[in-house]
Every structure is written in structure tokens, then in C-alpha cells.
Amino acid sequence: MTKRPDRSKFLEDFNHAVDEFIDHSYNRVINISHNDADGISALHIIQNLLYKLKVDNDYFIYNRSLSWENYLNGILSKRQSEKTAFIFTDLGSNLAELLPIIKRRKEHFYILDHHEVEEFAEIGEIPENLFFVNPTIHGFDGLEHISGATLAYMFAKRIKPSIMKQGWLAIIGIAGDSLKAMDKLQSFNREVYEELIDEELIEDEKGLTLFGNMHESIKNGLKYSILPFIKDFGGQSDNLINSFLNSIKINPKTKVIDLKTKEIETIQQEANIDSLGHYALIPQKSGLLKFAFEHALLINILCFKNISAALSIVQLKTITRYAKDLYAEYIYNLVNNLKTISNDPPSHETEKAVFMEVRGRIPPSNWSDTASFSAVNELFNPEKILFLGGLEKKSGTIKLSIRCSRKYIEKHSENGVNNIISGIKKELGGLGGGHKLAGGIRLSLPSYNRLKAHSEDFI
What domains can you pick out in the chain, each with its CATH number? Predict the structure, then answer.
């Protein structure tokens, strides 16, 4: 049975962490964040806070390819000081790995995360130098209710209220993690979203939601939409799409956001798609960067290509040619990946699982998003768990993006992806973690073969 959210318990942890941070007046703060749009947005929020507080600071980006022991070994100083703090944003819930490290240190550690915590009830006493804030241990959903950037924003704003002006960063994190129209947001994500609308820091618009190409023409919107992925038009020829639009008397060059209500109704009816919803705009930006979902997607793309560009694009008002070209290439490839999976899934299927071994067919940097958008668009049996990936040459391990549908969670609330990953790690080893709906793991080849042969034992 799913635990009911306990707001008061969560806020107790939250307020305690805020009070401790304010009371200690640190000389130096190091922020460690995740390498995706949510993590990068959270990082910028915290860095803005530290800048306003005039605290000496540094940051690092963690991609989960190493164990925490190995990763932190190169960051933690031999000279320990209680006047130094570490803030983990959008990661840090691998407490079984982190607690032994933290207990040996004098520095203070703040973990602001929204990922599911493995075996939290078995963790035992939290050390005095750790301030752990994670709403999932109090029944909140890490995807549905609160993003990592939302939590970072709440934390920073409580310490320095003027941080609200950077609240648009939280919306990028929300858009990148929720994979939903903005009218579907819940709980803390919804509260922050509405607050920022009221303060006119973001704009909320209603219309046809073809996420991935909201900044483009309706012709390109239908062709390159990834949420929803439209099977009849995704990756198809311009002639086919132009012919369809002309037949219903809509100019293919009309911008998606400029479509009139009647035109939207006609497209939905004739194309058999249900994608009317709300989307977020960032007023001070233009072009692709004005659209929260597309902005988040661009950051995710850059995180795999050029982490420096991913960090800097957040500060820009207009997209660079380099980033624009990468985005166009990525969307083209992703849509074609989804088309491939939709038409000819490269899968090994069992009673409870679908294995898609895609190395050589889909670039490794696309595996996570291809898995996510395959799940959200239900391109595989929504009653089963998806394991998508293959051999990663750099690490010599099997990298898997694991996903399930919301329909699956409704029926199996206690057997989400995070719990499945925990079971796999316990029996087969590996590194990874995630949410109820999404996660990832790296396994040795023998462990992967065992998982594939005995997947029913883990689901």
C-alpha cells in the first residue's frame, strides 16, 4: 500500500536543514549535482544563493558512473572543517554508500533530493553532520510531486527570499523531469509553478502541446513531437504532413503557438491526437529557450555532449548555433528511434519484461531519453517493465535504462523501477538507482545475462 504523503513531517526535515544552514555561517560550500536538466537547474539555484550570501563556493557534476567512494575521494580534502558544507542537489539518496563516508568527516552535508531512498527504514541513525531532506520518505512521489530543482528552489528561497527571481530555473527542472503538460502538475511542483505565474516570472499558455518542437511550425511540430510521439506523422516526410495539413486547410508554416482554437480542434480530430494542455514560457528568453520543456531537453542533450555548454546555456537569452544544431540532430534521431521501436521493436520479451538491446541502432547518449519517451508514449506493453540499453564501451559494463508506465504503477505501486533496481543490485551487484517510473543501472555482462534469463525473479 502506498504511503500517504505527510507534509508536516517533510517540512520538519526541511525547516531543520534550513535553520542549520543559516545558523552555521559556513566559510565554504561545495555543491554536487546531477548531470541532467533538473540537476543543472538545481545547481544554478544553489550557486545563485551562495553568490547572494557571498560565500566562497565550488561545484561538481556527478553522472553516477562511479561509486560515491571513488568519486568523493578526489573532492574531499584531507583537512576537515566544520565551517565547510556540501550540498547535494538532485542526488544523494544512495545512503548505504554515503553514510560511511559522511560519518568519517567533520564537514556538514546537506542532501536535497527527490529520488527514492533504498531501504531507508534499515539505514539506522542519521549522523549529526548530515541534514537529509527527501520528500519521498514521507510519502511524496519524486516525479509527480516535486523535482530536484523545486526542492533546491524552496530551500534557497527560505534562506534568501530574493532568490524567487531565479524561480524560472525550477520550472526548467520540473519540465525536464515531469514529462507532462503543466496543468498536470501536483503538490509542491504545482505550488511553485503557480507562485511564479503570480509573480509574472513565467508565463502559462494553453494550446496544442507538441513537446519537443513547440517553437516550430505545425508541420515540424507533428513531425518532431516527442510528447506525444504521433505514430502517423513522427519522422514522416514533409510531403505527407504538408498534404494532410493542406487537406484540412491549415497552413503548414503556422507556428504551433499561433494556432487558433478551431484549428487545434480540427488537428486533434483529424490526426486522432489528444494533446491540448498548458505549457510554460520564460519571458526573458527567446526562440527555443523561451519554452521550458524544450529548454530542459536542450540541457539534457548538452549534458552528454558538452557539460560546459550545458551549464552556460542556462545563462543565455538566445540559443547558440552550436546548441541549435545539436538539438535539431538530437530530435531527428530521437523521433527516428521512437519510430524504429514503434514499427519494429528490437526486443526480447518475457512474461513481465521487455528487453531492448539497442547498441548500434541508438546512440548510448540517447538511451535514457528513448526509454523515457517510449514509456510515456506507451510504445511497449505498459503492463511490463522496459530494460533498454547495451554494452557501454567506456565502462565495459551493460548500461540499462529501466522504465515502467504510469498504468503499471497504478497496479503495482510497491514494485516500481526503484524497488526492482534495489533487488537487482542486492542479487547481482551493479550501480544505479531511480524513481518508481524511471531509473538506470550498470551491470557486468554475466550479471546482465542472469537478469535477462531470470527477469521474473526480480519483478
Answer: 7-202 (3.90.1640.30), 209-284+313-337 (no CATH), 345-457 (3.10.310.40)
